[in-house]
Request: fold
Amino acid sequence: MVSRFVRKVRTASGAVAVQIVTRRGRQVEQVEHVGSAYTDAELALLLTAARERLSPGQDVLDLGDLPVVAVRMDDVADWTTEATLPLEPATAMPGGRPASVAAGGRVVGTSADLLWKVLTSAYARLGFDVLGDDGFRAMVLARIVEPTSKAEVVRVLDEIGAPAVGLRTLFRSLARCQEQDYRGQLATAAWAHSVHTGGTAALVLYDVTTLHFERPDEDELRKVGMSKEHRVDPQVQVGLLVDPGGFPLEVHLFEGNKAETTTLIPVLTAFGERHDVTDLVVVADAGMLSAGHLNALEDAGFSFIVGSRITKAPYDLADHFARHGNFFTDGQVLESVRDMGTGKAARGRRVVYQWKFKREQHDNKAINAMIARAEEIADGRAPLKKARFLKVTGATKELDQATIDRARQLAGLKGYVTNLPTSTMDGAAVIAAYHDLWHVEQSFRMTKGDLRARPVFHHQRQAIEAHLTVVFAALAVARHLQDATGTSIKKIVQALRTARSATIEINGQRLTLDPNLTGTVRAMLTRLETGH
Reply:
């Protein structure tokens, strides 16, 4: 026996998918996707449209006598049903218009036209439409809406009512991505946007992260290396260059076991040559700090600001400690010169320190916790293991008071190393530039979280590079929208995805009703239009 019924399924994105299922006995033969709802009004429209498809001409949506089937999104859990849903009147269509204007009409569909318009406009403002590739644009914008596989892009576009793009078109776009150097063209457009919006031509920020793969075997690219997530899967390393505001400028792919410090110069060199930029200053974290690598950076013509290891502070600030002991004023900046390297490779480096009261409180709290841990081990209340403030001599376990005293002395201090002279950038400016590194970390969090760049299932290097180019473009669009609205990309998508227009058919003619915009969405659109 063949039966057809309407099914509701809660999706991973939080929407409710409305489907028409054809079943023969206990076997499902066909599933027709009607649409996905994000609000109660959308769900009512989709259910009515689904029932119209089940019984054409018998379940016409009469918005005059029996308004819209009204079902709350909260009533739909992670289950499916054939049961009849409760009916109650709904007072308006998505545009906020009274139901009586559409008497005798039927719902044809709903779409998130406003979301698609905002995304495509941002893509164009960044100059990314220079590629002239609708398939690539579809993959980039679909990743912002709902990060998923390339094969699922067609479904995402269909759910929001965006122009359809075939799966074969998408894979042809991925092939062109490498052949026509899409990433280079995007990087040129990104740099032009950064300069236009006030980016500092001489200052860039750099960091490295890892992306792992769901496979056990290594190859020439995917290697087991030092993982920031403490994984043992094959991985690749991704170097990201951003401007001081966090807007992405370059992204590069490296082997998974390549040392972070050796990735920096190739990225900076490519950036300088691409944009004809000289006198470049790069800001990087303390992981890049070694005398040899700093010398190599300087010899390549680059200036730098990197984090300094605080253990050198007693030597760098010996004069201060001799005169003032451990006394500092909040925000105090001190400078010193330290020889880094040995023999002929030794070079004098400018070191900038700053003491902050809030940082001292944080450091002392951590020190107290480590002392408590060491005391438990020394007293035999915890098993023997390595602890910072524990000294073991033979069978004797005791606190290392000298190490504790030194840690207390350095609490509140943070250091920075640079080859920039004071006349170019004073100590306060050096510190401020380094603190902008959080923008790179934020971009990496967006890449791995909101855009789900990991795990990667591609196999060939060309496909991995193309995937990274899609993620890079999506990150740029997302950062641009966040900066323009002051709202996270996740909230932007959620707000605009639910602002859906509805198309209804009345007496053979179709009418599109605009979405009913909330105050939050209107404010967001205003900020996008005005830039503030």
Notes: The mean pLDDT is 82. The two ends are 61 Å apart (CA to CA). The CA atoms of residues 26 and 140 lie 40 Å apart.
